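anyone seen this seq b4? input:
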Amino acid sequence: MLLRSSLCNFCAGADVTLFDSAERGETPDLPVLELLRAFDALPIPIVAAVHGVCLGGGLELAMACDLIVASESARIGNIEASLGLNPLMGGIQRITQRAGAARAKEMALLGRRYDARTLERWNIINRVVADEQLAAVTTALAQELANGPTVAHASTKAIVSHAISHGVSEIDEAM
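predicted toks r here
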């Protein structure tokens, strides 16, 4: 499966008016966590094709995918701190899984935008390609996965999820 945007940006984040309820001390009614859990439970791999701006909820959406390929010019980050918020869709947790606690804190606390090559070095994204190659590379990758051993892909996703949640020793026993 390929997740991409045909607009000039992958996703500039959530509509900040959704957070008006937070100012009143209420939890925003956002069904996005169910969507992210569904991405994890989906038995097929999901490839995110990130271009342009990928901020806040957009980054969290991309990190819910199994593989992230970004264009050279992509600008990516958790900018919620600039709004006085934390990432609400698992951004801190997913960055911690991918890049470690220090990088998760840096990204969430500073609220900066990063270039794709930096986030590739930090293991947050898988691959960076030239802007004009993004569509071709991600389509080819999604087709390769779709034509591959799909039952094994489902098993791989389940093993990785279980290992993250329960540790290597427990997944060794489960296997």
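Residues 34 and 75 are 26 Å apart (CA to CA). The first strand starts at residue 2 and ends at 3. kinda curious what u guys think
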